[in-house]
Amino acid sequence: MSRDAEMIREISGCDPYRCMKCGKCSASCPSFNEMDIKPHQFVSYVLRDDIESLVNSKSLWKCLSCFACVERCPRDVKPGKLIDAARQIVERQQGGDYLKADEIPELLDPDMPQQLLVSAFRRYRR
Fold first, then answer.
1. What CATH number matches the domain at 3-93, 1.10.1060.10, 3.40.50.1110, 3.40.30.10, 2.40.30.170?
2. Which of 56-60, 62-66, 76-80, 95-99 has the lowest mean pLDDT?
3. 49, 50, 47, 54: which is closest to 84 by C-alpha?
């Protein structure tokens, strides 16, 4: 397994080998029609070490981080967490880093959706 695929597994805490390709994750995804790589396919890409295709796909940024896929998965694979981990790898490769507590207030906007704040918290707390 490649270093990036291993890193995705480590950051997400997920085991993509548990996936049985039932498609429940993709069926529950509100961004399904916008994605070129669907959540259940994302798991396959991680297993095949095709991380470059994942980081170049629009799916990586179309995911809403709503975790409907995580809730629907009967095998506890958590494709949304795999997607979030791949995003973190891209951010780190581009020089992104962890947020510090004193940086957060200046980033807040009263019109910002609550879901975005929760997603950012998940992403930057590791």
1. 1.10.1060.10
2. 95-99
3. 54
What does 34-56 look like in DSSP terms, one character per residue?
G-SS-HHHHHHHHHTT-HHHHHT
Location of structure tokens 């409907």? 68
Q: What are the b/e assignments for 16-52, b being 16+ CB within 10 Å?
A: beebeeeebbbebbebeeebebbbbbbbebbeeeebe
Give the pTM. 0.74
Distance CA 40, CA 37 (A): 8
Query: Vertex 13, ends 101 and 72: CA angle to 5°?
Result: 105
Mean pLDDT of 94-122: 69
Residue 16: pLDDT band (50, 70, 90) is very high
